[in-house]
Write a structure and sequence with these properties.
It is a single chain. The chain has about 180 residues and is an alpha/beta fold. It has a single domain, classed as HAD superfamily/HAD-like (Rossmann fold, 3-Layer(aba) Sandwich). Helices cover about 40% and strands about 15% of the residues. A six-stranded parallel beta sheet has the order 5-4-1-6-7-8, with helices on both faces. The chain has a two-stranded antiparallel sheet with strand order 2-3. Helix 6 links the parallel strand 6 and strand 7. The longest helix is centred in the N-terminal third of the chain and has 14 residues. It starts with a strand and ends with a helix.
Length: about 180
């Protein structure tokens, strides 16, 4: 099977950034009335300080696919900052958490990416690193391949394929394209 498009998660798949969303972390540590203000402050700090954010091996090859998008759980400003810090090119389609009503594990980010790419969801390959992202891709009706960069293989069992990293998946993509 060949895929019309590749839609990748950002954190934990393309870039090593530490991962968890600011709002979720803040909500665990402050009173509910303070979450918005504290999350905004943390986001500002994350966007301005991207030290240590690096591209995973194979990330540039993923973004070089003919039809590619990113669907991420971070905001557009943070996604762009992390892509720049990692030296990666922003694809034409970048769907962020602030562009959808429901984030992962809902299928909304992946469905919006497919719509913006002009492809059918069933023709898309999702690259993920987390159970919630795998659930989102599968709920969107897409094939999901996962990498074990942030979660153990046992927790990624709902993916159609699991690999240690992107190079193995990029090689499999190339083999499928050549077939």
């Amino acid at each position: 099977m060949t895929f019309a498009a590749v839609i990748s998660d950002l954190d934990g798949v393309l870039v090593d950034s530490g991962g968890a969303t600011s709002r979720d972390v803040v909500a665990e540590h402050v009173a509910p009335a303070l979450v918005d203000a504290e999350a905004a402050l943390l986001l500002e700090l994350e966007v301005s300080d991207t030290r240590g954010v690096v591209a995973f091996a194979g990330a540039a090859a993923v973004l070089a696919q003919p039809v590619v998008a990113i669907a991420t759980s971070c905001t557009i400003s943070l996604a762009r900052a992390r892509l720049r810090a990692a030296g990666l090119v922003e694809p034409d389609v970048l769907v962020s958490a602030d562009q959808v009503a429901r984030g992962k594990p809902a299928p909304d980010p992946y469905l919006l990416a497919a719509e913006r790419l002009g492809v059918q969801p069933a023709d898309c390959l999702v690259l993920e690193d987390a159970p919630s992202g795998i659930a989102a891709g599968r709920a969107a009706g897409m094939t999901v391949w996962a990498v074990t960069t942030t979660h153990a293989e046992a927790s990624l069992g709902e993916a159609h394929r699991v690999a240690a990293g992107l190079p193995e998946l990029v090689a499999a993509l190339g083999a499928r394209s050549a077939a």
